[in-house]
Amino acid sequence: MAEIDGKRLLAGLHKLRSFGASGSGVVRQTFSDPDMAARRWLCDELTLAGLVASIDGVGNVVGRSQNPGPALIIGSHSDTQPNGGWLDGAMGVMYAIEIARALREDPATAHLAVDAVAWSDEEGTYTTFLGSNSFVGDLTDSMLQDANAEGETVAEAIERVGLTGTPRQRLDLGRHVAYLEPHIEQGPHLEDAGLRVGVVTSIVGIRSMRVTFVGEQNHAGSTPMARRKDAGAALFAYAVTLRERLAEVAGPVSVWNIGNARLLPGGESIIPGRAEMVIQFRDPSERVLDAMEAAVVAVATAMNDDGPVEVTVVPQRQPVAPADMDPELRGHLAAAAEQRVPAEWVDMPSAAVHDAMVISHHLPCAMLFIPSIGGVSHDFSEDSTELDIVTGCQVVADASFSILNEQRLSIG
Ligand code: HGY
Ligand code: MN
Ligand code: MN
Q1: What is the CA(167)–ligand 1 centre distance, in A?
Q2: What is the pLDDT of residue 69?
Q3: Is the pLDDT score of 411 beyond 80?
Q4: Residue 353 near ligand 1, beta carbon < 6 Å
Q5: pLDDT tens digits for range 334-376
Q6: How sure is the predictor about 133, in pLDDT bands with cuts at 50, 70 and 90?
Q7: Residue 396 burial by CB count (10 A; 0-12/13-18/19+): exposed, middle or buried?
Q8: In this structure, are residues 349 and 323 in contact, taking their beta carbons and an 8 Å threshold?
Q9: Which CA distances in Å does 114 have to 2, 11, 62, 67, 101?
Q10: How far is the CA of 123 from the centre of ligand 1 (A)?
Q11: What are the two backbone dihedrals, phi and then psi, of residue 183, each rounded to the nearest 5 degrees?
Q12: Cβ(352) to ligand 1 under 6 A?
């Protein structure tokens, strides 16, 4: 089996961390200067790894092995949340580069084809899984009109960073046989159980809805309470009622979160005439997601019936359905984990969403997790041990070898 170079992997991760570094975390949102600088650096790294590398028309960085297929695609995303951790996405990208290098450096595996990717906008700064949706041909024109919090659309951002007209890389079913996405768990389960590796069974579905409240802006002192149409008061009342309703329809692992709540104009002496929030919810079952979405709408309808504030609900992002990982690929990851960390691995679901959900509609996919310290992610303090980072990469490298070997044997 090709042995990965742990020191080289960690050095690359710390270099990638430097693009948008902020304390112990990273601020590298899609199409920002740090994001594009990181993508250019990744292009160079992929080239050094012997791959033919380019940034495509939506910002994906794709390194294509010069070996003929069958080819494995390995990777993740290189963009981050506004308050991102240094490993979320980045680790899978650097695993891909290290594995491509290690297989190429070992004469016994130098003939194998591993393509490496860093997807664009996994974190939804602009739209839903921009890079992986584009790669599989599911990017719609309306998604190109989705915008970030500042109102810049995907199309405008692509123009701004100079990618307009650049070809978009696409899945090649005549070459690509599987996609592996290594990732940190972003939750507490592996650490709580004292385990080193998670082999992902399935990934939750996710939906988000924007709820808007329109009342009347007025003076916070001279307007009698009984005559107010307070959009802010309506938002808070809605949020409390909604949590109760969601708890009634939720499944055992359902989660929900209120984000981007705003009172407008927001001064303490002004009754807010407008308020808005985004409610995001996730569950492994479409039926439960449907029930949760119905609750979001029902609470708004009841509030409209009572008045005095008008409440509207619209989808914030395209929903993403739950996705199962490929059993055969999982078997390769499980066998490699059992070899490297016997009895210290487990099959587990993913409560975070990933590009593998999008790819899995077109190509067999699998994911490997390593533990997150304290189960923390989407926070500057996100971290994992160096041992777990390096071990995870070796397990994925071993599985990559066995998957491609099996493919070549089956082709004959
Ligand atoms: O939110 C998520 O699950 C992912 O980290 N973007
Ligand atoms: Mn991620
Ligand atoms: Mn994330």
Answers
A1: 27
A2: 87
A3: no
A4: yes
A5: 999 999 999 999 999 999 999 999 999 999 999 999 999 999 9
A6: very high
A7: buried
A8: no
A9: 13, 21, 11, 8, 9
A10: 6
A11: -160, 155
A12: yes
Q: Is the CB of 123 under 6 A from ligand 1?
A: yes
Contacts of 98 (CB under 8 A, 6+ apart): 4, 5, 8, 9, 12, 393, 397
Could you give the CA distance from residue 115 to residue 134 in angstroms, rounded to a whole number?
A: 17
At residue 376, the pLDDT reads: 97
Lowest average pLDDT, out of 137-141, 290-294, 407-411, goes to 407-411
DSSP 8-state assignment for residue 179: E
Rounded to the nearest 10 degrees, how much is the dihedral formed by the CA atoms of 171, 174, 175, 179? 50
Give helix then strand counts, H and E, for the chain.
12, 17
Report the SS3 class of residue 99. Answer: helix
Instruction: Average the pLDDT over 389-403 and give the result.
Output: 98
Q: Can you give the pLDDT at residue 406?
A: 84
Residue carrying structure tokens 């099959």: 347
- Around 159, how many Cα atoms within 13 Å sit in the side-chain half-sphere? 7
Q: What is the pLDDT of residue 113?
A: 97
Q: Is ligand 1 within 6 A of the CB of residue 320?
A: no
Q: Which has the higher per-residue pLDDT, 410 or 50?
A: 50
pTM: 0.95
Amino acid at 153: T
Task: Pick from 122, 183, 282, 355 the residue to mutate for probing ligand 1's pocket: most ligand atoms within 8 Å of its CB.
Answer: 122
Contact 391, 222 (CB under 8 A): no
Domains of the chain: 6-204+322-410 (3.40.630.10), 205-315 (3.30.70.360)
